[in-house]
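Supplementary Methods, section 5.1.

A reviewer requested that the exact input to the structure prediction be made available. We therefore reproduce it here, unchanged from the version used in the analyses.
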Amino acid sequence: MTQSLAAAGTAAGQLAEFVLAGDLARPARLTVPDLLAWPQHQAQVAFECATSGTQHHRFTGPLLHDVLTDAGPAFDPVRRKDRLRFLIAVRGADGHHALLTWAEIDPDFGRAPVLLAVTLDGSPLDRAGAQLVLPQDRCGARHISGINAIRVDGGYTA
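The structure derived from this sequence is encoded token-by-token as follows.
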């Protein structure tokens, strides 16, 4: 974590955090400065917003896959297809929800570069909270601002 981001968040007020829970060996509470521990990726994103037209933004942050893998998802690593039954639910502070599958973000399958953004257009998101960013989506409906919970669920059965 860089001191400048941590100091800026502390000086300006409480850091936003989110809960990482579900079928994980290491559930956690994470802040934007915590997310700086993972390799950072950048995405230039253009998406259509139903209320304000096309939006263009630059986001940086770790890959969702990296953060969730570090939390130890409860799938059987020997059975490659076991991870395909896992769902990822993301909720924002405003009540907005999005659902993804593990296969979307897994490098062996969809390999979508989904970010947990720590900056938006160069501005840190320490107080506002991390954002879910799906650069491949044409529509911005699955972009979640101010994430307050991510739940990994492997109990889904057809």
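The chain is about 15% helix and 35% strand. These observations are discussed further in the main text.
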